Amino acid sequence: MKGGGTVASKKKVFLSFDKRQKIGGFLFTLPFLIGFVLFFLYPFIQAVIISFNELVLTSTTFELQWQGLENYGYALQIHPDFSRVFTEVLVKLAVELPLIIGFSFFAATILNQEFKGRAVARMLFFLPVILGSGVVMKLEVTDYSLMMLQHLQESSSMFQGDALRSLFEAARFPAGMVDFVLDAVQSLPTVIRASGVQILIFLAGLQSVPREVYEAADVEGATGWEQFWLITFPMLSPLILTNVIYTIVDSFTAMNNELVLLIRETMLRGAGYGVSMAMAMLYFLVIGVILFIVFSVLSRRIFYHV
Amino acid sequence: MRLFVKERTKKFVVSLLRTILLIGISYVILLPLINRLSTAFMSVEDLYDQSVRWIPRNPTLRNFRLMWEHMDYVRSFGRSFFLAMFTSVLQLITCSMVGYGLARFKFPGSNLIFGLAIFTLVVPPQLIMVPMYLNFRFFDFLGILKEPINLIGTYWPFALMSFTGTGFRNGLYIFIMRQFFKGMPRALEEAAYIDGASLFTTFWRVMIPGAVPGLVTTFLFSFVWQWNDYLYVTTFMAGRSFLPQALEGAASKVHRAINEADALAASSGFLDDHFYSLINNAGMILVIVPLLILYIFLQRYFVESIERTGIVG
């Protein structure tokens, strides 16, 4: 009798734990669920619908006029800039993505070392996130004097593009590769300024690699190079995925992304809401496909430390 | 002895290389800020003067004075500050709650919800801006309210979105908070439960105090991004002047004012792109400085939180 009682009460404790897990999880995430449906899913579905329509605003409400696939056709075939800007944005991303990931990884390993002024360096590396967003970025795109100034500085002091090109050509590198390298060098300042959050994420990851692993490797006589490739790199590989995704999303949604500007322009004074929504939808579909490919390719190669 | 010397040279070379690299990178990072600062204090003649590079020959506060006046700085600052403050506090509360729910509770659909949070981050906000506008312009709560109300031009859209964790980049904050809570020890919570604390008491009294660095990071992100945000503010508050709108509109206001005061100056080509650049730079400095001050105050927590977060999935 007594024994039965204990079993029952144990069961009850277990059940209540399970229940607590469910109720707690539900309660804590409830605000987001409501918000997701009201302020994300609902507008998202509306955006899909609008992209097949023409939107007419009246003083009291709005009307939709069915257009079918016309908006999409217009965006892809008739609009003078859309396809060109779209490809340019994709190419730019393809050049910058590996550089951003590489640079932020590298910067995080440096900032993780012990040296004087480390706190100041960390603060500086994150500064672009504070400075380069929203309206500041938007005005920067249209500030011709500042651009001229920067162009002058960069062409005069830092990057001698032509000299580099002739050097590479003398060494008989293939032209495509030369272009890629030169593009990469030209976009270094952009890359450095776009890496703030990624550095932060890698840095946090580096901090969480247990010291004992390195100590064991030291005892076994592994060199620094081997330690990097056999310990640090695999331990951080999940974060590479995180950062690749963050970088893609960040570059696709930035205020100075030319396609974003084009979509906004189209919406406000161009071909109207329907077309701009169709453009945004195409854009989002491509982002989605790219993210999916990246995710499925990378996630198979990732080492998960348990 | 030789080995010792070799070791020391190696160390020296490494630290030298590192210092050079760090200085180079810092230069690239600081260059735009320095450019902006120096142009903001220049007069127009300095910009044309080839021999002036960093330090203006005729330093002037005129750019700042003009912008201060025409951005209506004190009032736009107040509005922006209020907006950024209240949205980030709301976002902080919601995102830490949702993050905690996702980090500590196993329930059916928890992975799905986490996936949805990341999904909101992946969709460009520009995509849903028009429907969002319509949604708030004719707000009827999915048809529950009979008469739709107009929430455009009020703080309600921001409040509702922040409170439900769907504001600008809130998916990222949920992600950060989830990772932070995941890295905290379970023992404290379990002790609290055994002592009979409820779910919310445990969360407020036990988890939140331990998560201060993570909260500060999230707060900083959310404040900064809201402060600089252009898209949401212009969509939901078109008429009102917040700092971003004030900054954008100020140049043409200055133009008009100078035109009215002195038609000669306007016709002599004095008001050109370069002049706009000067005053816009001064304006940007005015927008950025409060953020820099905030960052300097919070960076201690911030660096600490880097050391403590296990942002590892």
Keywords:
heterodimer, A: about 300 residues, mainly alpha, MetI-like fold, two-stranded antiparallel sheet, 14 helices, about 80% helix, disordered N terminus, B: about 325 residues
Extended strand count of chain A: 2
Cα-atom Rg of chain A, whole angstroms?
26 Å
CATH-derived architecture of chain B: Orthogonal Bundle
CATH topology of chain B: MetI-like fold
CATH class of the largest domain in chain A: Mainly Alpha
Just give the CATH class of chain B. Mainly Alpha
Protein architecture, described:
The complex is a heterodimer of chains A (306) and B (313). Chain A folds into two domains: 2-50; 74-301, MetI-like (MetI-like fold, Orthogonal Bundle), CATH 1.10.3720. Helix content of chain A is 81%, strand content 3%. Chain A has helices at residues 2-50, 70-78, 82-112, 118-131, 134-142, 144-158, 161-170, 175-186, 188-193, 196-207, 211-220, 224-253, 258-269, 273-301, and strands spanning 53-57, 62-66. Chain A has a two-stranded antiparallel ribbon with strand order 1-2. The longest helix of chain A is centred in the first third of the chain and has 49 residues, at 2-50. By secondary structure, chain B is mainly alpha-helical. Chain B has a single domain (64-308), classed as MetI-like (MetI-like fold, Orthogonal Bundle), CATH 1.10.3720. In chain B, helix 4 (73-104) runs parallel beside helix 7 (156-163). The longest helix of chain B is centred in the N-terminal third of the chain and has 39 residues, at 2-40. Chain B is flat and about 75 Å long. Chain B starts with a helix and ends in a 5-residue tail after the last helix. Chains A and B meet through helix 1, helix 4, helix 5, helix 6 and helix 9 of A and helix 1, helix 4, helix 5, helix 6 and helix 7 of B.
